[in-house]
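**Protein of interest**
===
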Amino acid sequence: SLIANGDDFDYEHTEQMRVVTDNLEYN
C-alpha cells in the first residue's frame, strides 16, 4: 500500500494500519 500523506509519522501509521487490516481480511 502506498499513500503519500506528506508526513512520515502519518505515513508509517497509515501503512501499519493497512497491514493490520490486510492481515485481518486475508489471513
The mean pLDDT is 65.
